[in-house]
Amino acid sequence: MKAHASQTYPEECCGVLLGKAEEDTRIVLDVLEINNSSKEQKSRRFTISPEDYRNAEMQANERGLDVLGFYHSHPDHPARPSQFDLEHAFPFWSYVIIGVDRGRPNAMSSWLLQEDRSQFEEEAIAQ
């Protein structure tokens, strides 16, 4: 994910997290890099096309995995969800954000949207 974030700088990268959910733990076993299909401000926005999402679901099913969430980068911004992220997220999925400072990935965090969609809660990342 960090390499993808560095390669796409100064635009946001994005991708899908594949793995297994076990009780309160999510185990990411693979990531799928996705092209940012945003039509506007790719340095501040990312979009995953319906076709790319459908392909990710099919790949996960074929491998006996689940889509656990998504990742994207924040070029020259902190690895914290933006208001735009909050408005476009859904509960259950994990959202990993990679901060990229002048082309170099730094902080990485993961977030889970509360059921009432009011705010994110940070999730622990074990590497």
Please characterize this protein's 3D structure:
- This protein is 20% helix and 40% strand.
- It is α+β, with helices and mostly antiparallel strands.
- The chain has one domain: Cytidine Deaminase, domain 2, CATH 3.40.140.
- A six-stranded mixed sheet has the order 2-1-3-4-5-6.
- The radius of gyration is 14 Å and the shape is globular.
- The two termini are 12 Å apart.
Give the CA-CA distance, first to last residue. 12 Å
How are the strands ordered across the major sheet?
2-1-3-4-5-6
Overall number of strands:
6
The figure for the number of domains is: 1
Secondary structure category: alpha+beta
CATH homologous superfamily annotation: Cytidine Deaminase, domain 2
Helix content: 10-25%
State the helix count: 3
Q: Which CATH C-level class is it?
A: Alpha Beta
Low-confidence stretches: none
Broad shape: globular
From the 3D structure, determine the CATH topology.
Answer: Cytidine Deaminase, domain 2
Average pLDDT over all residues: 96
* Cα Rg: 14 Å
What's the main sheet like?
6 strands, mixed
Which architecture name does CATH use?
A: 3-Layer(aba) Sandwich
What sequence of helices (H) and strands (E) makes up the elements?
HEEHEHEEE
Strand content: 35-45%
